[in-house]
Inverse folding.
């Protein structure tokens, strides 16, 4: 596999980042004061250059936010969550923007597509998120992921995931790339076993991502222990849910999923 290829990059990017950072740098924030929505970003956070960390749902309401299910903004008006831990209409959702400022929006509608295959839920916000929040993009089904098992040369995909304490850990997908992302502790891929943390209850809905360059590309979320649906394979289903919410609430522009651009990444062959 060529060292200049995208496949090589995705196999080594997470490891190279962990080599440059200590395990104390896994937390997004040095301070988390939920009562006053006062958050101080960790200046050594190992994914701090990825703008999409602003699209992570920090919590709902103003008490014990970390206990609530997580989520990820997939447009300025839509948030993807785990259906079994979805936030109801009327909930106030909290994000922290790229200047470290709190941004809140209310849920005005939602659609659950809950079943044992996907556990998906989409919330609609009362107004657009500001440009200082950078929604996640996804791999389009017609792009590289459709043939990623061969493209990765049989190697597991390195991914990253967030827990309920807003800490990000490296993981390895035990399925090379399929309808389900299975994220397991990966001490063999990192420099310190403390990165390999078992993620417990309360983490449902928090994102699981690939790291491409300085971007986080949304793959799925925590749902059943250690796994989550791969959104790439539910592209049409998610867009259909977003369209339904757009029509029902007369949202303009009618936002849909945005594909992560892989056109500048050179060789995508095995």
């Amino acid at each position: 596999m060529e060292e200049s290829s995208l496949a090589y990059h995705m196999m080594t990017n997470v490891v190279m980042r962990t080599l440059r950072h200590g395990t104390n740098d896994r937390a997004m924030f040095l301070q988390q004061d939920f009562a006053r929505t006062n958050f101080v970003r960790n200046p050594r956070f190992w994914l701090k250059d990825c703008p999409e960390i602003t699209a992570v749902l920090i919590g709902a309401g103003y008490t014990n936010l970390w206990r609530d299910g997580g989520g990820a903004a997939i447009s300025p008006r839509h948030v993807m969550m785990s259906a079994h831990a979805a936030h109801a209409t009327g909930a106030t959702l909290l994000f922290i923007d790229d200047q470290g400022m709190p941004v809140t929006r209310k849920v005005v509608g939602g659609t659950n597509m809950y079943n044992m295959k996907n556990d998906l839920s989409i919330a609609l916000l009362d107004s657009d998120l500001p440009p200082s929040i950078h929604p996640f993009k996804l791999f389009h089904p017609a792009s590289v992921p459709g043939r990623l098992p061969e493209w990765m040369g049989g190697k597991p995909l390195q991914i990253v995931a967030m827990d309920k304490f807003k800490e990000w850990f490296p993981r390895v997908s035990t399925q090379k790339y399929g309808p389900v992302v299975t994220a397991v502790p990966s001490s063999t891929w990192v420099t310190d076993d403390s990165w390999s943390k078992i993620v417990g209850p309360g983490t449902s809905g928090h994102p699981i991502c690939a790291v491409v360059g300085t971007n986080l590309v949304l793959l799925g979320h925590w749902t059943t222990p250690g796994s989550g649906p791969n959104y790439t394979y539910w592209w049409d289903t998610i867009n259909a849910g977003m369209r339904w919410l757009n029509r029902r609430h007369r949202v303009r522009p009618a936002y849909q999923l945005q594909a992560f651009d892989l056109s500048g990444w050179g060789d995508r062959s095995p």
Remarks:
- Confidence is low (pLDDT under 50) at residues 62-66, 176-180, 182-195.
- Helices lie at 6-20, 148-151, 235-248.
